[in-house]
């Protein structure tokens, strides 16, 4: 079964992003700023739901 070229490119991009994100987390460096962005968006929601 042959996969389309765009599917392969999307899947490869996803895996590369995932590997960079894991390496960034494990080395405790901020190569990707999305963690701070996500935290700033969801932090008020978490405080509202769980308190403190």
Instruction: Give the fraction of residues assigned to helices.
Output: over 70%
Kindly report the average pLDDT value.
Answer: 84
What is the beta-strand fraction?
Answer: under 5%
Residue runs with pLDDT of under 50 for 5 or more positions = none
Annotation field: number of helices: 2
Count of beta strands = 0
User: What gross morphology would you assign?
Assistant: elongated
- Order of secondary-structure elements: HH
The major pleated sheet works out as: none
Radius of gyration: 16 Å
Protein structure class: mainly alpha
| Integer count of domains | 1
Measure the end-to-end span: 52 Å
Folded structure, characterized:
Keywords: Membrane, Transmembrane, Transmembrane helix. The protein is mainly alpha-helical and 52 residues long. It has one domain. Helices cover 75% and strands 0% of the residues. The chain has two helices and no strands. It starts with a helix and ends with a helix. The model has no long low-confidence stretch (mean pLDDT 84).
């Amino acid at each position: 079964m042959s996969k389309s070229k765009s599917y392969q490119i999307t899947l490869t991009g996803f895996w590369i992003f995932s590997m960079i994100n894991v390496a960034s987390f494990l080395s405790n460096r901020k190569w990707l700023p999305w963690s701070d962005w996500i935290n700033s968006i969801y932090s008020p929601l978490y405080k509202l739901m769980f308190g403190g």
